[in-house]
């Protein structure tokens, strides 16, 4: 199986069966994200305690890329410190912008690497980064 096929499979699985698409009863922080160019809309719900992202979930509608990206992100940031989560968001956004291409440097993005090729699809970049910008804004304001 080619690497692109593996990535397509990962994205398909996360968009069809997102593990983290639900309301979070214990949310301490809620942030809406909206992409007016395509109508993607998410509400990110986080439980942040003692500087740690204990839980993350989301609701909303959007294309397969935005939904998969949000689900992967929610999985990745659980158990991370606020600083680590924001660092991952910055790294992901840099990857999508094509600013970081070194595989080793990007390794900690785990399944989010499946979205790497979105960098070559300008129309889809906003779909991929919506959740990550929303996360960064949420954690910035959650002092």
Structure description:
- The protein has 143 residues and is α+β, with helices and mostly antiparallel strands.
- It has one domain: Alpha-Beta Complex (Sufe protein. Chain: A).
- It is 47% helix and 19% strand.
- The chain is built from five helices and three strands, in the order H-E-E-E-H-H-H-H.
- Strands 1-2-3 form a three-stranded antiparallel beta sheet, with helices on one face.
- A hairpin with a 2-residue loop joins strand 2 and strand 3.
- Helix 1 crosses helix 2 and helix 2 runs parallel beside helix 5.
- The longest helix is centred in the C-terminal third of the chain and has 20 residues.
- This is SUF system NifU family Fe-S cluster assembly protein.
- It comes from Selenomonas ruminis.
- Belongs to the NifU family.
- InterPro entries: NIF_FeS_clus_asmbl_NifU_N (IPR002871).
Summarize the structure.
With 143 residues, the chain is α+β, with helices and mostly antiparallel strands. It has helices spanning 3-16, 64-77, 82-96, 103-106, 122-141, and strands at residues 29-35, 40-49, 52-61.
Task: Write the SSE topology.
Blueprint: H1 3-16, E1 29-35, E2 40-49, E3 52-61, H2 64-77, H3 82-96, H4 103-106, H5 122-141
Antiparallel strand pairs: 1-2, 2-3
Helix pairs in contact: 1-2, 2-5, 3-5
């Amino acid at each position: 199986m080619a690497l692109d096929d593996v990535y397509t499979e990962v994205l398909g699985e996360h968009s069809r069966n997102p593990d983290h698409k639900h309301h979070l009863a214990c949310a301490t922080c809620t942030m809406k994200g909206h992409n007016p160019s395509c109508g993607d809309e998410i509400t990110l719900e986080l439980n942040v305690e003692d500087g740690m992202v204990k839980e993350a979930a989301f609701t909303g509608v959007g294309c397969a890329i935005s939904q998969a990206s949000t689900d992967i992100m929610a999985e990745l940031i659980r158990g991370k410190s606020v600083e680590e989560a924001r660092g991952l968001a910055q790294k992901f956004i840099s990857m999508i912008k094509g600013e970081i291409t070194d595989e080793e440097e990007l390794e900690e993005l785990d399944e989010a690497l499946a979205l790497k090729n979105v960098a070559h699809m300008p129309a889809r970049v906003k779909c991929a980064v919506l959740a990550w910008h929303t996360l960064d804004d949420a954690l910035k304001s959650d002092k």
